Amino acid sequence: MRAYVVKEWKHPSELALVHNAPEPATGPEDVLVDVHSAGLNFFDILQAQGKYQVKPPFPFTLGAEFAGKIASNSQIPKGCPFKSGDRVFGSAQGAFADRIAVRWNSIIPLPDNLTFDQGAGLFITWPTSYEALVGRAELKPGETILVNAAAGGVGIAAVQLAKVLGARVIAAAGSQSKLDICKQYAGADYTVDYTTPDWQKQVLKITEGRGVDVVYDPVGRIKDSLKCIAFKGRALVIGFAAGRIENLPLNLVLLKNISIMGLHWGLYAHKEPSRLLVVWKELLSLLSSGKVKPIVYSTVYPLAHAMEGLGALERRETWGKVVVRVRDDEDAKAMAKL
Ligand SMILES: NC(=O)c1ccc[n+]([C@@H]2O[C@H](COP(=O)([O-])OP(=O)(O)OC[C@H]3O[C@@H](n4cnc5c(N)ncnc54)[C@H](OP(=O)(O)O)[C@@H]3O)[C@@H](O)[C@H]2O)c1
């Protein structure tokens, strides 16, 4: 089968697609999934170079998020509700490949109204934003939220979810075209280019001087954003897409009576697994109803060009979720036209 096999640490641009990679080994609790689409994440770029906390032993296949069908030759472990051909999505090591082995109890049925491309970027991105807004910041109807990198993978989900929760959303991003995406596809109420000087003044103007109740930050721009946070505001630390772990003078926390909260979605599987069920029940209901919709970047890369997709992600050119199409599927084509 085809797979991006990492045999030594290197930048993804130097990684070639292997055409005769071995089939993935399945453990007793695993099913085999035919990957139809895979989601690209910034940590894939880091992992290929040995700069990510998860360092599988060599050789390993790159990629994590996927959507696909249970393979016809998959074993079906005892208690597993899936059967061959079922549409599923999930995350495991090795998504940039024709097939992936994954624990049956970690995958989720793909709602009928979503394409494989849309499903490929759900598993990490959407619960991260949902739990940050609902479980951590407890965002309330009528509150105002500033979403940084609002056109990016987690950001564009946060914008949509905040709207569904009844909040007023100010989307901040680094270019006019990305801001247009936030309005057009995600329903942001206001947009601000946070590369312009004194952008916080625009946020203060929108909020009539009060500032925002919640800041959602996947970039490393918390300190900047505190210039326009309200008294008793909550700031969510989601990630450091700018490549530097931000330091914060704690007097800023004291001066405005604010709370800084972190969210590491991956930890819930170990620390609070019951929360996964609650979050996914809500999310699947929202996704199935069409109240929120995964936004896929306009260029969908074939597997042979997956590393170009990671390059575009790294160069900050993309918006929404960047997806690799591993198999062309009639279902996906039909639904894409809807
Ligand atoms: N805490 C968690 O559980 C969790 C879960 C998932 C992801 N994350 C983290 O969240 C961050 C964003 O993930 P994502 O999937 O939304 O990524 P993404 O789709 O690549 O979006 C990241 C955005 O960050 C902005 N950015 C600012 N400076 C950048 C730089 N120097 N290089 C690249 N991007 C830069 C860009 O938007 P502009 O051009 O508009 O500035 C870019 O679109 C990542 O650090 C990721 O690791 C955390």
From TrEMBL:
Residues 10-324 form the Enoyl reductase (ER) domain. GO terms for molecular function: oxidoreductase activity; zinc ion binding. SMART domains: PKS_ER. Pfam families: ADH_N (PF08240), ADH_zinc_N (PF00107). One of its GO terms (cellular component) is mitochondrion. Transmembrane segments: none annotated. InterPro entries: ADH-like_C, ADH-like_N, ER, GroES-like_sf, NAD(P)-bd_dom_sf, Quin_OxRdtase/zeta-crystal_CS, Zn-ADH-like_protein. It comes from the Eukaryota. This is Enoyl reductase (ER) domain-containing protein. It comes from Boletus reticuloceps. The lineage of its organism: Eukaryota, Fungi, Dikarya, Basidiomycota, Agaricomycotina.
